[in-house]
Design brief:
This protein is of the alpha/beta class. It has three domains: about 280 residues, HUPs (Rossmann fold), CATH 3.40.50.620; about 90 residues, Up-down Bundle (Four Helix Bundle (Hemerythrin (Met), subunit A)), CATH 1.20.120; about 55 residues, no CATH class. About 40% of the residues lie in helices and about 15% in strands. Helix 10 packs across helix 14 and helix 12 packs parallel to helix 14.
């Protein structure tokens, strides 16, 4: 399994400078506002990472991509970023709303005939491989929940001492009636939550909306730890409070996650963290919308899961999915369809060709100044437009439009276009500078050689319409075709 990064020593980081502001929609206040770091020039981010009991799908990864874009944009603007992405390897119940139904890690272990640790290790490695395929920057630290049981117990004990939590036969529940601000993130009112319950879900709770901080372990429970209240295991929500504050402190800048985590997970996290420290912990809450498949939410229960590794079998480069995600704002729903991916593939191809020329023939070009008095005036104007887009609530569709404007700009030469696109790619993350890989005929997908032969014949007959159609069919198989004076050269999309 890939090694996970150790936490950074913040004292060893160089002094931050004063970069331009980035404005971001804050789910807590429900409006766009500038990120104002606790430490000027340094932004701290916590991302709810994967629950490692099954493969992540591209809907999950769209959420993580939004956090990756935020980090890239901040670093591009000159900020230092400390990014924590957790690994949930215990405590995630089958019914997340009521903390019931069995731990998903243990259920997966039972189904697959493995230990919970083996399940966690396997699916953690798979998740990190998927992130690498989509060119995500690795987290500054990626803590596991099972390595932080002690911190969770400390937070739970503090909440009990402060009268915000109570014990019921070895299980500790948070008493939401004791936290007046409960519901401020999601807009849920406590009275509405109570009215919405038709039956008592757990009879040992004082109120149905109370949630578990620590659960008593039953006799058959494999993952269990000693506590002042007997053997048990942590609730899902307490994990993120413990890990975020351990690595980022009692006040940090941005917390990211999917829109489905706003309630109850993030609402409960606020109650826990602020209940312990007595003040606001997270400055900015960033939530991303769903990726749908034919207008239906992607979910294992619906049988419409697509993994990143499945994209190649459908003839698509993973970077085309990343490109597709950039065509919609992260707070807007995005529908995954074959036609949308084909359009994304064409757009990605266009940017790569503009970025690859003239380096393919002239070798590596010398670095070009894109800001300051030595920069070409035309390049400065395009870069300013790009900075404006990413600084305005991560307006990636607009940023992508600037990249395409550069790709076809008549007021830029080829070297300037390449320099700008590679500069933008620090945020886009599309691997625009990577060259195509020539393929031998034996490496071609089944049927590709026949299409290439037909295309060569069509071009010899000057039937360019047919040649273009065959090129598109090859593209769907993952084969790019570049026409040269010596003939067509197939290459495998990365």
């Amino acid at each position: 399994m890939p090694d996970l990064l150790d936490p950074p020593d913040l004292a060893d980081l160089p002094d931050p400078r004063d970069p331009p502001a980035l404005r971001l929609y804050n789910s807590l206040g429900r409006h766009v506002e500038p990120i104002e770091p606790v430490t000027p020039g340094r932004v701290t981010i916590y991302t709810c990472g994967s629950t490692v009991y099954r493969y992540a799908h591209i809907g999950n990864l769209r959420t993580y991509l939004a956090a990756d874009i935020l980090r890239r944009a901040l670093e591009y603007l000159g900020y230092q970023v400390v990014h924590v992405k957790n690994i949930t390897d215990v405590g995630h119940m089958r019914d997340d709303t009521f903390d019931t139904g069995g731990d998903r890690l243990e259920l997966a272990a039972e189904v697959e005939g493995k230990t919970p640790q083996q399940i966690a290790d396997f699916y953690t490695a798979a998740w990190l491989e998927d992130e690498a395929l989509l060119n995500f920057l690795p987290g500054s630290v990626m803590p596991r929940a099972t390595d932080h049981i002690g911190e969770m117990l400390e937070l739970t004990a503090t909440l009990v001492e402060r009268g915000l939590a109570y014990e019921a036969d070895g299980t500790i529940y948070y008493d939401v009636s004791e936290f007046p601000d409960y519901g401020k993130l999601s807009g849920q009112r406590l009275s509405d939550l109570r009215a919405g319950h038709r039956v008592e879900v757990e009879t040992d709770k004082r109120d149905p909306e109370d949630f578990a901080l620590w659960k008593r372990a039953g006799g058959g429970r494999l993952m269990r730890w000693p506590s002042p209240w007997g053997d048990g295991f942590p609730g899902w929500h307490i994990e993120c409070s413990a890990m975020s504050m351990k690595y980022l402190g009692e006040r940090f800048d941005v917390h990211t996650g999917g829109i489905d985590l706003k309630f109850p997970h993030h609402e409960d996290e606020i109650a826990q963290s602020e209940g312990v420290v007595g003040h606001r912990v997270v400055s900015h809450w960033m939530h991303s919308e769903f990726l749908t498949l034919a207008d239906a939410k992607m979910a294992k229960s619906a049988g419409n899961i697509i993994r990143v590794s499945d994209l190649a079998t459908k003839g698509f480069d993973p970077m085309a999915f990343r490109y597709l995600a950039l065509t919609a704002h992260h707070r807007s729903k995005l529908d995954f369809t074959t036609s949308a991916m084909e359009a994304a593939t064409a757009g990605l191809r266009r940017l790569r060709r503009a970025a690859a020329s003239p380096a393919q023939t002239d070798g590596a070009a010398a670095p070009m100044e894109l800001s300051g008095p030595a920069a070409p005036p035309g390049a400065v104007a395009y870069r300013d437009r790009f900075v404006t887009a990413i600084s305005d609530d991560l307006a990636m569709p607009q940023a992508l439009a600037v990249a395409h404007a550069v790709a076809s700009a008549d007021d830029l030469d080829a070297a300037e276009r390449r320099a700008l696109l590679l500069d933008f790619d620090q945020v886009l993350g599309l691997r625009l500078g990577e060259a195509e890989i020539p393929m031998a005929s034996g490496e071609l997908p089944v049927g590709a050689q026949e299409l290439l032969q037909r295309r060569a014949a069509a071009r010899a007959d000057r039937d360019f319409a047919t040649a273009d159609t065959l090129r598109d069919q090859l593209g769907e198989m993952g084969v790019e075709v570049r026409d040269t004076p010596e003939g067509q050269v197939p290459s495998l999309r990365r």
